[in-house]
Every structure is written in structure tokens, then in C-alpha cells.
Amino acid sequence: MVVTSEHAGFEKHLEKVVPSGPKASEKVSQQVLGAVLQELAIAAPHGCLRSELLNRVGPGDGSTYSAATLSKALAALERAHLISKRAVYTGPSSGGRPPERYTLGSELWAMVGVHISISQNRHHTVTCTIRDLSARLIDTKDLSLTKEPESAQIAQQIGDFVQRMIAKWRHGRAEARILGVGVEVPGHVHRGKVMDAPHSGWEHAAPLAIDLGKALGGELTVVLDNDVNLIALREMYRPDRRTRPQDGAVVAVFDEGVGAGLVVGGRVHRGHSGAAGEPGHNPVFMGAGDPRLPRKASAPKQAGTYPAFRDPCNCGKLHHIDCYAIPDRIAGELGQPLTEFTRLAGEPAYDGNKLTATGKAFWTAGAALGQGIVSLIHAHNPGWLLLLLPAALAEAEPGVAELKDQTAAGLYRQAIETIVNEQAFSSTADDARRGGKYLEVRATAGDPAGGDLKGRGPEKAARNAAVRVLDDFIAHALKQDNCVREQPVEAASVRAVPVGLDERQLAKERQLALTKELREILKYHDPEGLLGAEPLADQYYTEEYELLRLVKDERLDSDSVSELWRRSFSPSKLLVDESKRSEFTRELVTLQARWSSGRIAPVTR
Fold this sequence. Notes:
Layout: H1 8-17, H2 30-43, E1 48-49, H3 50-56, H4 67-79, E2 83-87, E3 100-104, E4 109-119, E5 122-131, E6 137-144, H5 151-170, E7 177-185, E8 188-190, E9 193-196, H6 208-215, E10 222-226, H7 227-235, E11 248-254, E12 257-264, E13 267-269, H8 327-333, H9 341-345, E14 350-351, E15 354-355, H10 357-380, E16 385-389, H11 391-394, H12 408-423, H13 428-433, E17 440-443, H14 457-477, H15 501-525, H16 541-552, H17 558-568, H18 573-576, H19 578-596
Parallel strand pairs: 4-7, 7-10, 11-16, 16-17
Antiparallel strand pairs: 1-3, 2-3, 4-5, 5-6, 8-9, 11-12, 12-13, 14-15
């Protein structure tokens, strides 16, 4: 079995649920376990009756598992304390066993969610919560970070803090277990690294999840994700998930940026390298102009002044939606600090029949956001779209008889709806609105579920990070993640040497497919930085040949890759970068497992 390193902890958990060598009558596949957990996660915290699970839990093709299969899965999960059950008494007994309601989790399991508050190139505080598997709060604490800029130093501070909280929760219960640790940050995140977070001050590709995993002793699975992706994920675990379209989107406007989370086929879509859903960096208000070379960003604003619409985005580029649509820029355009935004939002947009400077700024900002939403609608065609806005904007109404009667915030909302109506193609706007008159809007500061999170943004963000742990664990059980397991292959179905022309051609095509995938890995990682703008991986021709030989001989591992690189490159950039070497080797080992199990598809057939 080959399991990617970041999910090794999940595999250990699943091995505890179904230990090796169980009785035949107790054997159950991980996919069935994952399907049960997913249904209970959607229904959390209330859970499901056994009869409801029988009608809903299946392999994903519209069918359901048999009562015997479901019973084995429920028994295995209950023995591992991942689920609990209780009898449901609805009235006078009529004989027989009362209905049973199953819920996710028990007092022996918890998961950790971490929110890192980042603003103006500073790491302010960390909010750490421990939650049960139904995401109910057990404990929460805040940590003030020191000003260390390096990922490893930040991770060590967070790791020590998390370990103390876990030790407190486990006190006196040696059998208590943590499912994993989820971490939420703004910006571009990919494979456990913070690739680009304009407000963070981190170096590019800071390996935060890897560093935090080390700080926690290497025993716990750590998952890292973007803040708005986690909001989209949370939307997929609301009780109305079964009645919602499988494709949706969340657009969130924060004080310092606009982000989006995309849901495709019931799963959060993160794109090739985790950068999907960044409408804040779409360009707007760009005329055709004259032919020119790319413009350089102007100098940053001086201390004591406020960034306005004409100033560069935090990423350094010009004319991005983040330059217009966010409270920080709206207030700055009016020469005011961000603290005055709520007051400005409540001001009249018109003085009589004349548009005020405040009204103009809010209309411009809303129109810019509307253009970004239209682009997202066209690219994704979501069946629902949730727009999260600061409370001062969310509470305004776009639909009044006369624009001159609007507040500035109402004009912002109307600008969004106007642009979407004018520019959205065909039925895409209606699809996103799900038949409503306006886009669904909620305030970023609140939560419609209320409960322990009402008005508590950092705890809500940390909760979403914890839910990501559960979602990853379920995806691992369902084999929907990037982990690859060797599949048993009947000896009769595999010959060492193809004997017929068809088989020889198939073997040739499989090897071409293997070569193509290996070249893609080399091009993506470019371990020694040799490719530059070259579209091909020819600079690694010798290494490609050796790697192909290792894969086909099933001798590729971390040591063999390191030895090959020591012979080929001196000095080697790959060998001095532990995280890069680990990620590169992991993809090669996964490729080897797919080749060995016959899962490399031919290029042509």
C-alpha cells in the first residue's frame, strides 16, 4: 500500500477501525465506512436513524448498500468509537427494539481547527479550537504570535500551543485520539504550502503544514487550506446539501480582499495548484488603450495615507478587483480610515438628485465586484452562489424604487445586481440565484446557524478548518484523495512479455503514457531550476531514463532518487530542500504504484 505522507495518520486511524485479519463476517471496505461517515457528517449534530442510513448510504451510483453491509460498517465504526448510537423513544412501547439514531463521534475522538489572523503583513493571533467530530466546541484559546517571519518558527509556536491544548483534553484518557489538525489562512495554498498570501509576510511556498506536522511530532495529519475554500466546504456540510445542486460558489468580501470557493460535483475545486477562486485579482475597468509593454506598479502609499482605487493591489498589480470592491479601498478612496467604513456605508448615496462622492465610491466598488462575479458565473455556471459581505453591506437592500433614496451600502448592492443582470450570459444569473430575485447574501460577521459561533468570526474560521480534517478523512476512506493504493492483480491477467501484436502495442502505449506522466512531474517540479521558459523537460533526459528504469523495476524510493541526484548534480538544489525533495519523491512513488497496479492508461487505444 502506498499512502501519501500527509495522510499517513488517516490510514492508521482506518487500520484501527478494521484491523488486519478480522473474521470474514466482520470485514468491511473503507469505502463503505467513508460513505457512512459522510452521511452522518452532513446530518451532524443530529445524526440519522438506521432506516435513514439504509435509504441514503451507497457507493455513489444511485444504489444503496445492503442491510448486512451497513450493519458491519456501523458495528466497526462503533467499536472504534467514531460513531455513537442511542435508542429513540417516540411513545408507548409497542414491543420490539426501538429505533436507533446514530451520530458522528464520541468523547474519545476530537479534531483541531486553527485560524491564523493575518493583516497588513503581520501575524496577529492564532485561534485554536478543539471540537468533537460533529464540530461542536470543546475548548478554544487564542495565542499571540511573535513577529518571526519564517514558517518553521511560526509552526513551532503554534505546535507547542496545540500540543498543550490536546494534552489538556486527553488528561486521564490515554485512549483518546485526535483525528487531525486543520489550519486556515488567507491567500493561495497548495499541498500544505502558503504559496502567496499578500498580507502574511511569509516567504513564497512556505511549507506551513509540513513544519507544523514536524512541530507536532509527526504523528498527526495536518491539512492547510484557504479561508474561502473552507467556507465553501462548510456549505457542503449543511443539512440542505441533498437538495442543493452539486455545483456552487461562495464569494466573500473581506476588509482587505475578495476570495471565492468553488464546489464542483459536491467537492471543493482547488484547481491545478490550489489557485482556483481568486476573483479579487481579476482585472476590471480596463479599456483597449494603445499597444504598450506591461506597466509597473506605482510606489506604495506613504505612511499615514490610505490606499485608493488607483493604487496597486496588495499583490503589486494594478486594476484588480481588490483595488476597488473591499472596505479598505472604499474608505481609502474617501480619505478615511477603515474604522469609518460602517458610518460611510450608512450615508445617503445622493444629495437630492446629485450623486455624492460617497455614493460614487460605493457604486464603483460594487460594479467592480459585479464584474468579478459575472466572470466566475461564466467560468463555473454554479447552481447556487452565496455572497458573504461585511455586515454594513449585507444588511442593505438593493431593491428600492429610486436610486436617489439609497444609502451608499444599498448602492453597492444595487451595482452588483445591475452588472450581473446586464452582463451574465443566457440563464447563468438565474442559475446562480436559484430562482430568487437577488443573489443570496449573508454577513461575514455572523452565522445563520447561531449557536456557539454567532458573531465569533475567528472561532467560526477555526471550526471550518476542523471540518476540513473530517472531510479529508472521509475522502481518504472513499479513495477520493490523491493517495494511491496498490490493487491486487490476478497473475493470469499479467504476462511479463507480451506475446501478441495487440499486447505488444498495448505495452508500448502504456510505456509512452508512463513517460508522458514522468515528464509532467519533472516539468512541474523542475528540481534543479533548469527549464526556465523551455516547454520540454529535455534538460533532465538522463535522469528521466534512470527514473523510468527504477519505476519499471519497482525500485524507486527516497534513497534511490537521492542517490541518482547525487550522481547527476553537484551541488544539488533538490537535495538541500527537504520539503521539495519529499514532495517530488512522493509523486514519483505514487506514479510507480499506479504503474505496478496496471493503472497507467495508454495514450491511445
